[in-house]
From TrEMBL:
Keyword tags: Membrane, Transmembrane, Transmembrane helix
Residue intervals passing through the bilayer: 9-42, 48-76, 88-114, 120-143, 150-173, 179-206, 213-240, 246-279
UniProt protein name: Uncharacterized protein
Lineage, broadest ranks: Eukaryota, Metazoa, Spiralia, Lophotrochozoa, Mollusca
Length: 290
């Protein structure tokens, strides 16, 4: 009977270990599938953004070509219908200014699109980092919980085995005492039995108390380790997010400064072109008057 009980306990331990291993494998497979799906979604988003930007750039180029063709047609019509060179120069100045303004607007739109792409890519990177960190935390917590369950199961099984052994010892002692009862006086035998039972009960109580204290200490140590691991991971996540945020802010500031410099340079170029054109007009008008 005792051998059967021990075999049953060993079979239960093996079954529990197999179940825990299967659960860990299933959890790891699910996490890997989730990560692959997230990566595929992010790649699809990036491809869609790139396609949209290419379409926008093509549309802008087509609009520029159409505007240039319209302006050339207007200049040809004006040059054929009007003989006044001053009016032609004036209309040419207006057309050049319109073209420059259109180019400035297109440059600003392209820069805004580039900033949006950078921001979207950075946000996607942050999401990937956060997802990976969360998955790591979940895996650690699951493993720790499984370890705790295994430890508790093993401890319980050990307690059961100890109790069974103690019961066997009690039975053996009782048999020995019964044999001694035949030889020794009944009163002495009763006293001895009582003393032995008391001692055995005390030993059992002491063993159970020691086992309970060991279990409590193990659980406290495991909980402290889990808390420390979670705190370290949270600190790492906060540091990573702060660093990424600082990098984004620096990139946006640099891009804004570049946009402002480009706009100032374009405005200066426009002013210089207008001044040159006005001076050219005045020279032409004076030559005509002369």
């Amino acid at each position: 009977m005792m051998m059967m009980k021990i075999k049953t306990i060993i079979i239960i331990i093996i079954i529990i270990i197999i179940i825990i291993i299967i659960i860990i494998i299933i959890i790891i497979i699910i996490i890997i599938i989730i990560i692959i799906i997230i990566i595929i979604i992010i790649i699809i988003i990036i491809i869609i953004i790139i396609i949209i930007i290419i379409i926008i750039i093509i549309i802008i180029i087509i609009i520029i070509i159409i505007i240039i063709i319209i302006i050339i047609i207007i200049i040809i019509i004006m040059s054929s219908s009007s003989s006044s060179s001053s009016s032609i120069i004036f209309m040419s100045i207006i057309i050049i200014i319109i073209i420059i303004i259109i180019i400035i607007i297109i440059i600003i739109i392209i820069i805004i699109i580039i900033i949006a792409i950078i921001v979207i890519i950075v946000i996607i990177i942050i999401i990937i980092v956060i997802i990976v960190i969360i998955v790591i935390i979940v895996i650690i917590v699951i493993i720790v919980i499984i370890v705790i369950i295994v430890i508790i199961v093993i401890i319980v099984i050990i307690i059961v085995i100890i109790v069974i052994i103690i019961i066997i010892i009690i039975i053996i002692i009782t048999i020995v005492i019964i044999i001694i009862i035949i030889i020794i006086i009944i009163i002495i035998i009763i006293i001895i039995i009582i003393i032995i039972i008391i001692i055995i009960i005390i030993i059992i109580i002491i063993i159970i108390i020691i086992i309970i204290i060991i279990i409590i200490i193990i659980i406290i140590i495991i909980i402290i380790i889990i808390i420390i691991i979670i705190i370290i991971i949270i600190i790492i996540v906060i540091i990573v997010i702060i660093q990424i945020t600082i990098i984004i802010v620096i990139i946006i500031i640099i891009i804004i400064i570049i946009i402002i410099i480009i706009i100032i340079i374009i405005i200066i170029i426009i002013i210089i072109i207008i001044i040159i054109i006005i001076l050219t007009m005045e020279i032409n008008i004076r030559n005509r008057n002369v």
